[in-house]
Specification:
Number of strands: 19
Strand content: 15-25%
Distance between the termini: 73 Å
Radius of gyration: 27 Å
CATH class of one domain: Alpha Beta
CATH topology of one domain: Leucine-rich repeat, LRR (right-handed beta-alpha superhelix)
Structural class: alpha/beta
CATH architecture of one domain: Alpha-Beta Horseshoe
Largest sheet: 17 strands, mixed
Number of helices: 16
Helix content: 25-40%
Shape: elongated
Length: about 475
């Protein structure tokens, strides 16, 4: 009878955890997700850590937890990771977690959790992905109080042993997503070197508040098998790779250097010339605040994307014009971009571009070229319109209102295309609308870009369309 009662309790507890979304089973992808996020009561963590049998025996387990639960229930969660091999770990912290980030217990909790994962390092279910991300402010709960500080301080030998086990875990990590705001205080800063040095790491995504943090990250990074690196810097100042970086990471093939600036006229797009010296790559994503780029060997290059350093500049400002000009100036002063067939330079436009065009209508707009070097070598271009004013999408729901977008393209976009005098192929990409086009519109496009041979439109929520120009008959035909 006791065994029956025990089994019934386990079944009821597991059913509750699944119904409440704490445990999510995905049989098709053969993994189980455990979510300890948001407003959950402490008893749930006790249940999960005490009854490993509550978690189905799936090949992969994803553990997603709030930093508060990690610190407050470190032993329970370490016990869970010891019993159940976790393949993917996501730690969510919040903008108001300063008291936690400054607490020495936080570094101990992180070390203990990753040390517990070392037990499964030699199996096919070892931890291979770590994601540390910042969320919005957490709503305060009256029971969210940490245990007394002195109860969680381990002895020095115990901590050293856990640190050694953490290093063993990190040797097998393949993917790291990390917001370095998490390591803003000394107790956690000591862990950065361990996280950024891995024999098996092949993909890193990191977000840094300043150029200094980004430079320190690149200097500390040592992952010989790294193939993909993405860095977001919330700073206008460009970064430079340390000496020997390419030699230490010979397998690097995909690189993103993204700078995000605040919406301020006081913050400009980089006053001093700063080039991006890139290693041999297959894919590049670059912010437009770099003044030029050059690559020693560009023979393997397949994709090149330029994004605005400020996605939301004031629509009625000269700063908006500067953001629109910057990718053109970047390409005009760089080496020729020689991409293979069926590839094109991709440029993202900032938000409110239609509003900017309307406000500058009839006035001098600095988005178009004026004695600056043009991009003579480029023949294929893709423009991403995802950041168009949301009001455009509403108006496009009206009958025949697609003329709004076409008129906008004729008045503003075609003037901007003067930066690329030898363009032969143009693609517009927008996930929100479907575009219809008349031959008269295409003739207007051809009059402004006389070398144009094809025009395409891609939309996820609508059918794609492509038109081709036949010079012998001087007509456009949809294909």
């Amino acid at each position: 009878m006791c065994q029956v009662s025990h089994n019934l309790r386990e079944w009821a507890t597991r059913s509750y955890l699944i119904q409440s979304g704490i445990i999510n089973i995905n049989p098709k992808r053969y993994f189980t997700t455990i979510r300890l996020l948001g407003d959950i009561t402490p008893i749930i963590i006790k249940w999960i850590s005490s009854f490993a049998c509550l978690i189905p025996n799936h090949k992969r387990i994803r553990l997603e937890l709030d930093l508060f639960y990690l610190v407050g229930f470190s032993d329970d969660l370490s016990n869970l990771v010891t019993q159940c091999p976790v393949s993917s770990l996501r730690i969510a912290f919040h903008s108001d977690d300063i008291h936690l980030l400054e607490d020495s217990r936080t570094s101990l909790a992180v070390v203990s959790l990753l040390a517990a994962a070392s037990k499964h390092c030699q199996s096919d279910r070892s931890l291979f992905s770590i994601h540390i991300e910042r969320h919005m402010v957490r709503p305060a709960k009256p029971w969210m109080l940490l245990p007394p500080h002195h109860n969680l301080i381990p002895s020095a030998p115990s901590f050293d042993a856990r640190l050694a086990s953490m290093k063993e875990t990190m040797r097998h990590i393949r993917t790291l997503w990390i917001d370095f705001t998490f390591f803003c205080n000394p107790p956690l800063q000591n862990l950065i070197l361990i996280l950024l040095q891995s024999d098996q790491m092949d993909s890193i995504y990191c977000e840094c508040l300043s150029k200094t943090i980004a430079d320190n990250t690149l200097s500390s990074l040592h992952c010989p098998k790294l193939s993909s690196l993405s860095i977001i810097i919330r700073d206008a100042c460009c970064i430079k790779f340390p000496d020997g970086f390419t030699h230490q990471h010979p397998q690097l093939r995909r690189l993103s250097l993204i700078h995000l600036e605040p919406n301020s006229e006081m913050v400009q797009v980089q006053h001093e010339p700063f080039p991006a010296h890139l290693p041999s790559l297959e894919s590049v994503v670059l912010s437009s605040n770099y003044t030029r780029w050059f690559m020693d060997d560009a023979s393997s290059l397949r994709d090149f994307l330029i994004i605005p350093s400020n996605h939301h500049p004031p629509a009625d400002s000269d700063l908006y014009c500067k953001v629109m000009r910057s990718p053109c100036l970047l390409m005009g002063s760089s080496q020729p971009l020689l991409l293979p067939l069926n590839s094109a330079l991709q440029i993202h436009w900032p938000s409110d571009v239609q509003k900017h065009a309307a406000l500058r209508s009839g006035l001098q707009c600095l988005c178009t070229p004026n004695r600056q070097p043009l991009v003579q070598d480029l023949t294929s271009l893709e423009i991403n319109l995802d950041y168009l004013d949301p009001s455009v999408f509403v108006s496009l729901m009206w009958p025949h209102a697609l003329r709004i977008l076409l008129t906008f393209l004729q008045v503003y976009a075609l003037d901007w295309l003067a930066w690329f005098p030898n363009l032969t192929s143009l693609v517009l990409i927008c996930d929100h609308v479907a575009l219809t086009c008349r031959e008269s519109d295409l003739r207007h496009l051809h009059s402004r870009c006389p070398s144009m041979q094809s025009f395409s439109y891609k939309a996820k929520l609508g059918s794609n369309a492509k038109w081709k120009f036949f010079p012998s008959e001087c007509i456009w035909v949809q294909v």
